[in-house]
């Protein structure tokens, strides 16, 4: 290629472009998120509602995330790679599996689990998604598995020595999750699984894959434990995501995969059995946006105090204060809804509609909160180095997974009206073709 002479001169001076300036050198007016800001969003003293044990765990998780994850998260998010080096220290927190009980699992209360999860999401939503998917896999084995399966799989999963994933969604069936097309055919000594799964978190490296497939004899959905490297199993990373980029979401192909009888989950005999797990995971997912909003608020408050325009800190301007107040109000309200959800769950009074309203409403408010935060940081609001842009993008998949905003609204709608409106009116089988 012939370059114009001006550019030729430049390339001759040096054959390598200079590396980008470190953001703290390039922009010294504000501290980047690798040094995470103090937690300052607990305006209504939610902490007062927590037990000493809950407070201690909260601080332990917060310290781990700020010290070990905050300094590296922007780099790994940008590379869309998983930082495997954090696993031993993450395992030391003793929270993998969250409220899963027994067999080395932590058996935390749902409140403690939710608070720990929010603390992780405050610093990095991908890290929280990774642990959540893993824990949902554990919970499924604990609640639907045989004694032998629990003994065999749970202890090493609890120590993060092995990793799990949870595979329900398929390319053709997302919101319409119960329509599962993947099949499980009974053969001598086991099952043959055929089909495809999409979006499955951790699946590219998971040791234990919990797969949902339709039993061709009963036509019901069953659960199977498929092991890494099983012949016929292939998981390929989905590239070019705009959110939770650290999470390795995969497309899974299952071609003639043999699963021995001892790896079929005996307690998972229909789609209704997934509700045992989905109730918990919906509450846990509802706490991710709370944590994300907390981190964004913390970052914004520090940034606005540090950065000056028109001769004053940005924090001194009325419009910016109004946005901060709105964000802080959202966080107080989201936290109290999330808290109440945990308490209803504890008392066995949480309905599917409650969980869905919590998840949908909290994600809506969090989406507003992170969008305000993105605005407040100006140009740096689109840089992962200042956290808010990353959190803004991470909110998008969370708004969509574990049931989209719409689907969760419809679950609540069905409960409060008595009418299910998932299916479009007037769509006969024939007109669908
Ligand atoms: C980052 C990420 C991680 C994920 N991790 C996992 C995982 O680990 N395991 C797993 O099994 N799945 C996972 N999922 C899948 C996730 O649960 C689905 O993406 C989600 O359920 C939505 O399905 P879909 O993407 O096919 O959207 P669709 O179902 O195609 O929906 C598209 C749009 O149509 C709307 N819509 C659909 N049906 C209706 C209706 N009846 N009425 C009104 N509106 C409707 C939806 O709300 C949405 O806005 C993940 C997804 C993402 C993005």
UniProtKB/TrEMBL annotation:
Start and end residues of each Acyl-CoA dehydrogenase/oxidase C-terminal domain: 275-414
The keyword Glycosyltransferase is assigned to this record: no
Biased segments, Basic and acidic residues type: 7-16
CC annotations in GO: peroxisome
Residue stretches in coiled coil: none
Cofactor(s) required, per the database record: FAD
Domain Acyl-CoA dehydrogenase/oxidase N-terminal, residue spans: 51-159
Organism, as annotated: Gossypium anomalum
InterPro entries: ACX4-like (IPR045008), Acyl-CoA_DH_CS (IPR006089), Acyl-CoA_Oxase/DH_mid-dom (IPR006091), Acyl-CoA_Oxase/DH_mid-dom_sf (IPR046373), AcylCo_DH-like_C (IPR036250), AcylCo_DH/oxidase_C (IPR009075), AcylCoA_DH/ox_N (IPR013786), AcylCoA_DH/ox_N_sf (IPR037069)
Molecular-function annotations in GO: acyl-CoA dehydrogenase activity; flavin adenine dinucleotide binding
Keyword Oxidoreductase among record annotations: yes
Domain Acyl-CoA oxidase/dehydrogenase middle: start-end pairs: 165-257
Spans annotated as Disordered: 1-22
Gene3D superfamilies, A to Z: Acyl-CoA dehydrogenase/oxidase, N-terminal domain, Butyryl-CoA Dehydrogenase, subunit A, domain 2, Butyryl-CoA Dehydrogenase, subunit A, domain 3
Protein name: Acyl-CoA oxidase
Family statement drawn from the similarity comment of this UniProt entry: Belongs to the acyl-CoA dehydrogenase family.
Stored SUPFAM superfamilies: Acyl-CoA dehydrogenase C-terminal domain-like, Acyl-CoA dehydrogenase NM domain-like
Gene Ontology biological process terms, A to Z: fatty acid beta-oxidation
Protein keywords: FAD, Flavoprotein, Oxidoreductase
